[in-house]
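Fold this sequence, please.
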Amino acid sequence: MRPSFSLGIEEEYQTIDPLTRDLRSHTPTSLLAQGKLRLQERVKAEMHTSVIEVGTRVCRNIDEARKDIYELRREMIRLARENGLTLVAGATHPFADWRKQTIYPDARYQKVVKDLQLVARANVIFGLHVHVGIEDHEARIRIMNSMRYFLPHIMALATNSPFWVGLNTGYKGYRAKVFERFPRTGFPDNFSSYSEFENYVSLLVRTNCIDNAKKIWWDIRPHPFFKTIEVRACDIPLRAEETVAIAALIQATAVYLYRLHSANQDYRQYARTLLMENKFRAVRYGLDGMLIDFGKQQELPLRDLLEEYLALIDPVVDELGSREAIEGIRKIMATGTGADRQLKVFEATNGDLKAVVDYMAEETTAGLS
């Protein structure tokens, strides 16, 4: 049976003090309670109390996903303002000190902190997760294996975290460098079958490494409870329209790879060690970098490789009704990623990080009306 290729999008937002522009905990306010009242389970807390997460319903197509994520952003921006906060979509805060952030009082998060200690406390980052419905276990594993190749391309498009604790890191996507301190992160190995993946999970549970598969935090994973592959690699973009474009690209990639597999073909598999070289280049240099074309065994400008990538998935775009959303990828290529634009503001204001936060807040609301 052909997969549904349904979509689910999760975004993690910063809650900001409008005066200091620093991160501020939302727990003294009624933001979360009001969010749950208005949006039910589509809103939830995260490990740090300056993070609030939203998730769409299961969406049949990109148009439904766009409508849902726009509604969620609009409502959370409104709720934040009502509670004396500013909502910001950025994968790291430009100058906040992670040592001052508090942990949400939930047993699950308390256990993560107990296990991982300083690594967990320092993990004040904000991501975009995209789920694609693939109901067959084996198809899910095959598509995950092949999609690893494209993750650096996607990550470069989403880069939105150039600053950390008041420093210009020199990275376009520094969030990835913070998160890789966690165990069981980065790209997964190639799995020959779903049963091999299940055996891996069972071994970790048996040996008390994890209590369930949700603590496997790879950049792409078969979701342990939903029949989806979940791409977790991306920074949260500044604009909702950028989130929609990236989600559409991920969905189209899954459909393209499924078509290959259905025709008894496959996208060539490369070793994780090689793919991680491209991941580093993507988060270090973003759109202006070079990625390695492993088939040609040479490095090429990422923008050229993105054009090849868009041509590759083009035959499935109209079938998915995502032509307009995919055009958003070219808009990102033209205007720059969130990281590129943050850095422009930083340079134009002689390093004023509060001005960068103000810009991020403006961009978070852009295009939602």
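The longest helix spans residues 240-262. The CA atoms of residues 16 and 249 lie 30 Å apart.
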